[in-house]
Amino acid sequence: MGKDNRNRSLFALQSDYGGATLFLEESAEIANMKMQYLARKRVLRVKEAFLPYTREGSKIVVYDKTNKSYKIRIPKALRNDDRSKITAKSEQEVYERMYIYLFGDDRYTVRSLFEEVMNNKEHDADTSSLTVSRYRQIWNKYYEDAPLADMSISEIKASDLKQFFKDLTAGRVMSRKNFVNIKSIFNVVFDIAVDNDIVTSNLSRNISCKDLKFKAVDNENIRYTDEDRDKILAYLDGLAEKTGYEYGIELMFCLCVRIGELRALRWSDVDFRKHTISISREIVLRKGDDGKNHFIEVNHTKGGEHGARVLPLSERAEKALKTLREQQVVSDHICCNAAGSPLDGNKFNKHLKKVTEAVGIPYLSSHKIRFWSVTALARATGGDIQTVMYAAGHVDKNTTLHYIRAVQSDTQAEKIRECFA
User: Fold this and answer.
1) 173 CB-near residues (< 8 Å, 6+ apart)
2) What is the Cα–Cα distance from 23 to 139, expressed in whole angstroms?
3) Model pTM above 0.85
4) 229-252: buried (b, 16+ CB within 10 Å) or exposed (e) per residue?
5) Among the residues of 51-175, which ranges form H helices?
6) Hey, what's the torsion of the CAs at 221, 222, 227, 231, to 10 degrees?
7) For strand 270-271 and strand 69-73, is the pairing parallel, antiparallel, or unpaired?
8) What is the pLDDT of residues 316-331, one digit of tens each?
9) I need a labelling partner for 341 at 20 to 30 A (CA). Which of 249, 309, 412, 421 fits?
């Protein structure tokens, strides 16, 4: 068996066992035994189907010396198309193809492929535990009991997918954003099916959803305003003492960073001579060997492949950094708690909530500080997408366009207001 066929067989075996990757926990010998057992089961199923149409003592598989291949002639009663025979380079493979011809490729259901996707994500150091949990939640809510979940991926038609999506969105019961998250399950399931030569194209990504109707959402553009930022920074200026969390809030309003990037900032990233700071790592949630989620520091940001981005420091950011540098206890990380450890994300938001309550503005999470900084940058640069992408650390320009559209929405509203003033 060639390398590609062997890999395909291993993938099939994983699917038959609910997506468990046997070679991570079991020996190659055990995995091979299971694979052989499944192959024999499929051979017996084919022989059983042929039993009424085969004379006693005759062979189902014959070797074609001329073409150096094995073949099975299909009894007329079992034909579902115009083919009269199935051929392959080995006896096992011809039985496998005959099985698929008669019974379909039932190993690769949406459910089994989803489990393979989840297995890959759970063992991928670059995939957050939160992402894994979100996929599981979506599956359990929308796919677990759906008939499509147990269909062979090769049998699913565009009309099946479209009807599934229409049923989900009927009556405008969900937002477009929610639908996109749900559809992402089918996207990744078809991706892995394409990668393993099970299907030839990603039906989910190719299907048009323009005619689907979604619930109107008013809060997509909600973020901190410039006035909110000024109130928060003024309040922080008035504090007699500030913890690492208050300094962290201040720096987030002065830098175009994610909360995970802020927490991972080290003093080695700061160049006071050049007035710059390097954003090159982040703290993320990952599942450990004990099965529990832990925060770990990784040497890349969310974009990853583009390396560090070097951002200029404003006078305010530099002043905050120098104040932190002059404290009695200075850790490797810039923003720390009282014990010298990097900031906790949940506690960061609790401190942020106290600050917003103190200044009388609605509380929004740390991500909305990020939203403010990127949209403020988009406004300041006139929507220069390359500059915004670099400073924000975006890989996909569509992500940046989301923020630029928010700025355009603000501009449109202002022009309408001026027109009718």
Assistant:
1) 215
2) 25
3) no
4) bebbbebbeeeeebbbbbbbbbbb
5) 91-103, 110-122, 129-138, 158-169
6) -150
7) unpaired
8) 999 999 999 998 778 9
9) 309
